Amino acid sequence: MDGAQPLFTSFTTRYSGRADRGTAVDEQTQGRLDGLRAQVDALDAELVAVLARRFAVTRQIGQLKACAALPALDASREQAQDERLCTLAAQQGLDAAMVVRIHEQIRAQVRAEHEAQAVQRS
């Protein structure tokens, strides 16, 4: 290639646990960064595991909806979810709009899977 960086590099190549962009940092600060980043990595793994469990359940819901010829979208359920998520976000000190945006991405994937299940069923 013409010296361009590859689109994807390995995780360990990009994030070796050293300071960002070659900035010099003392060992104590680097150690704290490494520890905090390890916590974030563990939390990310938990998020992925929770998403996997959630999608296992929503796939069952999709099968039930497909068998009963119900639509993938349940607007009243989504509205209730948004209200509940806003309350939960506020209780945790999070930006409710951010939480709803993230959840909308999840719901969009769920709806797409439910629609695909309905097509397979028909």
List keywords for this structure.
122 residues; mainly alpha; Chorismate Mutase Domain, subunit A; 4 helices; elongated
Q: In percent, how helical is the residue content? A: over 70%
Annotated CATH architecture: Up-down Bundle
Assign the CATH superfamily.
Chorismate mutase
Q: Any idea what the shape is?
A: elongated
Kindly summarize this structure in a few lines.
With about 120 residues, this protein is mainly α.
What do you see in this structure?
The protein has a single domain (26-121), classed as Chorismate Mutase Domain, subunit A (Up-down Bundle), CATH 1.20.59. The chain has four helices and no strands. The mean pLDDT is 88. The longest helix has 41 residues, at 27-67. It has helices at 11-14, 27-67, 75-92, 96-121. Helix 2 runs parallel beside helix 4 and helix 3 runs antiparallel to helix 4 (96-121).
Chain-wise SSE layout:
Blueprint: H1 11-14, H2 27-67, H3 75-92, H4 96-121
